[in-house]
Design brief:
This protein has 261 residues and is α/β, with parallel strands linked by helices. It has helices at residues 9-26, 38-54, 80-87, 109-122, 159-165, 184-188, 203-211, 244-253; strands spanning 2-6, 31-34, 62-65, 67-69, 99-100, 128-131, 153-156, 178-181, 192-197, 229-234. The protein has one domain (2-260): Rossmann fold (3-Layer(aba) Sandwich), CATH 3.40.50. It is 34% helix and 16% strand. Strand 2, helix 2 (38-54) and strand 3 (62-65) form a beta-alpha-beta unit. The model has no long low-confidence stretch (mean pLDDT 97). Bound molecules: fructose -6-phosphate (F6R). Fructose -6-phosphate is lined by residues 35-39, 66-67, 132-134, 138-140.
Length: 261
């Protein structure tokens, strides 16, 4: 994988948005894998701005989100469907029929995963998957000990994830303990992966994922198996990486990144 270090959080967010827009421009009917969470809020605001200013067309784009809470209706303010609608979908010209999230109210919890995977296949597979990382190393809601070959399924969230996300609920105790998530194996099938990591709180887990041994205890370390992964980190999140000098050198010297120097 490649690591890009930006000096500020804002620059990291802008670069992530620019790469997403670049993917849409080079393939107008691309399939995007999307993430939610605080990290992505500014990215989606920037994507919406670029859509308006540069008239980027999303009408043929298809999206699959990583995860959804089990038990929350699409119009629940803490559902990921609601988040996507508010932060991104309503600001761009995407066709709602082409936006997919697992169904938090699915009647058949064990069938929801295979059904979601069939939809991903039907749309041709994910071209670019956007990822954040949890403080416990999760990607999507693949918590520590998730198999690297896991598929989309229902999972129980860890106390760490509940602590990380429950403050966003009006009553923190109402946060669901279960969720649907794409599997680690599903994520690894994306043709390209773009992970954004910002803030000091993520520095330790980022170093473990990128430079530590691959281990199911750090699900994000599975990205070391992927051939086309770029991680964008701000200086705070990159603070514990041992190869920082080298990552900065690559950004300065690799022609692929010349627009971002
Ligand atoms: C959300 C998701 C999660 C988040 C992670 C980081 O769809 O897949 O893995 O990316 O929990 O969350 P924030 O950005 O809130 O720190």
């Amino acid at each position: 994988m490649e690591v890009i270090i930006r000096s500020s959080r804002e620059e990291a967010e802008k670069m992530t948005a620019a790469l997403l827009i670049r993917a849409v421009k080079s393939k107008p009917d691309c399939v995007l894998g999307l993430a939610t969470g605080r990290t992505m809020e500014a990215v989606y605001a920037e994507v919406a701005r670029l859509h308006r200013e540069k008239e980027v067309d999303f009408s043929q784009v298809c999206t699959f989100n990583l995860d959804e809470y089990i038990g929350l209706a699409p119009d629940h303010p803490n559902s990921y469907r609601y988040y996507m609608q508010e932060k991104l979908f309503k600001h761009i010209n995407i066709d709602p029929q082409r936006t997919y999230l697992p169904d938090g109210l699915s009647k058949d919890v064990k069938q929801e995963g295979p059904h979601y995977e069939a939809l991903i296949r039907y749309r041709g597979g994910i071209d670019l998957q956007l990822l954040g990382i949890g403080e416990d190393g999760h990607i999507g809601f693949n918590e520590p000990l998730s198999s690297f070959t896991s598929r989309t399924r229902d999972v129980t969230l860890t106390p760490e994830t509940v602590a990380q996300n429950s403050p966003q609920f009006e009553r923190p105790e109402d946060m669901p303990r279960r969720a649907f998530t794409m599997g680690v194996g599903t994520i690894l099938e994306a043709r390209r992966i773009l992970m954004l990591v910002t803030g000091k709180a993520k520095a330790r887990v980022l170093a473990a994922a990128v430079e530590g041994p691959m281990a199911a205890m750090v699900p994000a370390s599975a990205l070391q198996l992927h051939q086309n992964t770029v991680i964008i980190a701000d200086a705070d999140a990159a603070g514990e990486l041992r190869m920082q000098e080298y990552y900065r050198w690559v950004l300065e010297n690799d022609p692929r990144w010349q627009d971002f120097r």
